[in-house]
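Before surveying the methods themselves, it helps to consider a single example record, giving the amino acid sequence and backbone structure tokens:
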Amino acid sequence: MMDQKPKGRVLLTVLNIIIAVLALVLVGLIVTAVLRITLTPVPGRPDISAAPVSSSTPPVQTSQLPVTDANVRSDRTDALSADQKSLLDALEQALSGTREDRVQAMEAWSNAVMDHSAFDSWTDIWMLTYQDGQLWRDFTGSGVLINGSSVYFGTIDHQTPDGEGMAIVVDGKASGSAVMYFLQEGTWDQGVLTGEAQLIRGSSQTDPAAGGCVIQCTLDGSADEIMTQAQLTVSQTQNGVTHQFTLQAENGAYSSDGTDLISCALHSDCGVSLLVDGSVTDLTYQNPYPWGKQPRQMGLPFSSYAYGYGGR
């Protein structure tokens, strides 16, 4: 009797194992049937299969995607007349040229602007950038920014001078086709001329060193564009002889040595002096033509000095 009980237990264990295996097989058959029903293609719908992923091609990162051009083209580009576009092309070509190239392009542009019969048929392009033959109403890069009789050549950030560049303001006529201009060359910070700069008052047909005013200065970086240091060289040619006079300014004010006569810096015996009056001594020395704003002064005091002749 003792030998039969273990044998019965062994038999029972074997039967339990067989039942468990059969149950697993039955569950497997049921799952297979369900999957076949679920994955059976619907009549009329094409089979969709996933392409194998190549292990040699890494996934594209967001930073690797191409950057789209953020500049927004103006719808006025196509409305430009042939002569207006030709003058704009000349301004754009001057962007990569010399200072003289830009002044001459500005002379042609301004004379056309002052010719109302032609100007009336032009397309309004105020505060638009011209670059690569196109007008842009939101531009960042290097281009030509138009503001009526003022033009900025250089680096632009969303229609604002920002970086190295040159602005030329035409504010009057000289003889013949020549125009009077005021030039600002240096670095802009969001439309403000800052740091070391050169300002020139002159005529488009005359060398400023022979007839005009050249200002080497440092600007304070504020919105007022005050000259913290400035040396002004005023030149005038009389009877074929050029005379030059040097003035100093500091922290926006004229720096005087107490005399109202400044002798010619080029000649020791010409007898020509610059007469200093209130238009010089009472002036606040700052950029007179801030970009995109009203002029700070009526006219330019750098062109209205009086000259005296005779022995000393």
